[in-house]
Amino acid sequence: MEYQELRPPAALRAFIKCLWTLRGVSHDPAPQRILPDGSVELILHFSGDYRRHEPDGRVVVQPRALVVGVVAVSYTHLT
Asked: Looking at the DSSP assignment, which residues form a beta bridge with residue 8?
Protein backbone atom coordinates (compact mmCIF):
# COMPACT_ATOMS: atom_id res chain seq x y z
CA MET A 1 0.00 0.00 0.00
CA GLU A 2 1.26 3.47 -0.89
CA TYR A 3 -0.05 6.56 0.93
CA GLN A 4 0.81 9.97 -0.49
CA GLU A 5 -0.14 13.51 0.56
CA LEU A 6 -0.22 16.20 -2.11
CA ARG A 7 -0.38 19.97 -1.87
CA PRO A 8 -3.62 21.31 -3.40
CA PRO A 9 -3.56 23.76 -6.31
CA ALA A 10 -2.89 27.36 -5.22
CA ALA A 11 -6.48 28.46 -5.93
CA LEU A 12 -7.82 25.86 -3.47
CA ARG A 13 -5.33 26.19 -0.60
CA ALA A 14 -7.58 28.52 1.39
CA PHE A 15 -10.17 25.71 1.51
CA ILE A 16 -8.19 22.44 1.27
CA LYS A 17 -5.35 21.49 3.64
CA CYS A 18 -4.13 18.52 1.60
CA LEU A 19 -5.07 15.91 -0.95
CA TRP A 20 -4.13 12.29 -0.33
CA THR A 21 -4.13 9.02 -2.18
CA LEU A 22 -3.92 5.41 -1.05
CA ARG A 23 -2.96 2.98 -3.80
CA GLY A 24 -2.06 -0.64 -4.11
CA VAL A 25 -3.37 -4.04 -3.20
CA SER A 26 -2.99 -5.42 0.27
CA HIS A 27 -2.60 -9.20 0.07
CA ASP A 28 -2.62 -9.49 3.85
CA PRO A 29 -4.89 -6.67 5.05
CA ALA A 30 -4.62 -5.64 8.66
CA PRO A 31 -6.80 -3.22 10.63
CA GLN A 32 -5.33 0.27 11.02
CA ARG A 33 -6.28 2.66 13.80
CA ILE A 34 -7.36 6.13 12.62
CA LEU A 35 -6.82 8.93 15.11
CA PRO A 36 -8.95 12.10 15.15
CA ASP A 37 -7.24 15.06 13.47
CA GLY A 38 -9.99 17.69 13.44
CA SER A 39 -10.38 17.57 9.66
CA VAL A 40 -13.39 17.04 7.41
CA GLU A 41 -12.65 14.68 4.53
CA LEU A 42 -14.24 14.07 1.14
CA ILE A 43 -13.37 10.47 0.27
CA LEU A 44 -13.74 9.01 -3.23
CA HIS A 45 -13.08 5.28 -3.74
CA PHE A 46 -11.98 4.27 -7.20
CA SER A 47 -11.28 0.59 -6.52
CA GLY A 48 -12.03 -2.03 -3.85
CA ASP A 49 -14.23 -1.77 -0.79
CA TYR A 50 -13.30 0.38 2.17
CA ARG A 51 -14.39 -1.32 5.37
CA ARG A 52 -14.67 0.14 8.86
CA HIS A 53 -14.52 -2.17 11.88
CA GLU A 54 -16.82 -1.07 14.70
CA PRO A 55 -15.92 -1.64 18.38
CA ASP A 56 -18.81 -4.14 18.65
CA GLY A 57 -17.27 -6.32 15.92
CA ARG A 58 -19.50 -5.23 13.03
CA VAL A 59 -17.84 -4.48 9.67
CA VAL A 60 -19.34 -1.58 7.72
CA VAL A 61 -18.65 -1.24 3.97
CA GLN A 62 -18.36 2.44 3.08
CA PRO A 63 -20.01 3.95 -0.01
CA ARG A 64 -17.89 4.89 -3.04
CA ALA A 65 -18.14 8.61 -2.16
CA LEU A 66 -18.64 10.06 1.28
CA VAL A 67 -17.96 13.08 3.45
CA VAL A 68 -16.47 12.35 6.85
CA GLY A 69 -17.16 15.08 9.39
CA VAL A 70 -14.81 16.06 12.17
CA VAL A 71 -13.79 12.79 13.84
CA ALA A 72 -14.02 12.95 17.64
CA VAL A 73 -12.96 9.37 18.47
CA SER A 74 -10.50 6.89 16.99
CA TYR A 75 -11.70 3.99 14.83
CA THR A 76 -10.24 1.06 12.94
CA HIS A 77 -10.49 0.36 9.22
CA LEU A 78 -9.39 -2.46 6.94
CA THR A 79 -8.72 -1.95 3.25
From this structure: none
